[in-house]
Amino acid sequence: MATITRRAVLGGTAALAAGGRSALAAAPLTGRQVPGFYRQRLGSMEITILSDGAGNFPMPDGFVRNVSRDAAIAAAAEAYMAPAGHITVPYNATLINTGTKLVLIDTGNGPSPPGASVGLLQANMKAAGIDPASIDVVILSHFHPDHINGVKTEAGTPAFPNAEIMAPQMEWSFWMSSDSAAKAKTDMIRVRVVSAAKVLGDVAGRVTRFMPGKEIVPGITALDTPGHTPGHCSFAVASGAAKLFVQSDVTHLPDLFLRHPDWHVMYDTDAETAQRTRHRFLDMAAAEKAPVIGYHFPFPAVGHVEKQGKGYRLVPVAWNAVL
Questions:
Q1: Alpha-carbon span 266 to 144, nearest angstrom
Q2: Which fold has domain 34-248?
C-alpha cells in the first residue's frame, strides 16, 4: 500500500509543475474576488447579507486591551488568520425585504479608492440587482465610520436618495454633540465625533431618532446593546414564528471575542459595559437558537451561537442554493 507523506505530495506537485506545463493552458490570474451577497428566507421576509469587503492588517498594539498582544496573536493563529501577526476584519451590511419595505442596516465604509478591499457595498448591491434608490429605510446601529460612511457617495450626495435614515437617540446625542469632542477621553473618540458630524450633520433633517425596545419598522425591533458605543443597538427581526438577530458590533471577530467574551476590543467606548452586554446578548441568542448576523463575522456572516465552556462558538449556517 502506498504511503501518503508530505514529502511525496510536495514532490508530486513539483514534478507536475516541471513536466506538465506543456499540457496545461496558461491563463492570467483574475486578481479579484467574486461579488459578495447571500440570501435567505425568514418567514415571509427575504434577507440579503451584503459584503462591504474585508481588511487584513497587522494586529494593532492594544487591539485586545486586557490581554497581552502575544495571547491575542495566538488566538488569531488558532483561527488560521494569515500572515502571522495579522487579523482579517470583515464588514457586512444586512438588507431586509419585509414585503412592504426594503430596509438596510448599516452602510459600510463608504467610498474607497479603486482596488481597495473595503467599500464594496454599492458594487455588491448592484451585483445583487438592488437599486440604492429603492431602499426605503436605512437603520444605523451606531456611529462608527465603518457603519455610517456609506450614507454618502464620493460626491457627498445621498447614497440612498429616497431612504429615511433611522438612528438611536443616544447615539445621536453623544456623537453629534460638540461637548463629546471636548470631553473625549481618547483621540479615537475625538476623531469619531468629528467624523460623525461630517457625515450626518447636513442630513440631520432626514434622520429619525428612535429609542431601543420598540418596533421601529414592522418586524424589526431595536435592542439596547450598549458598551461598544453609548447608544449601540442590535435588532430582532421576526416574521411569523421565525426570528433572527442582527447583532451589529456586540462582538467583534468571533474567533476572538465569542471564544473570549471577556476580552476588550480597542474600539469599545465602555469596555466593562460592552462585556456585560456580550454575555447578556449571547446567552439570549444561544437560548433562543435563532440565527445571528454579525457585522464582523466572516461572510456570509450568519450562524448560530452556542455556549462553549466559559465562552461561545459560532456555528456558521450551511450554504443553501435554494431560498
A1: 13
A2: Metallo-beta-lactamase; Chain A (3.60.15)
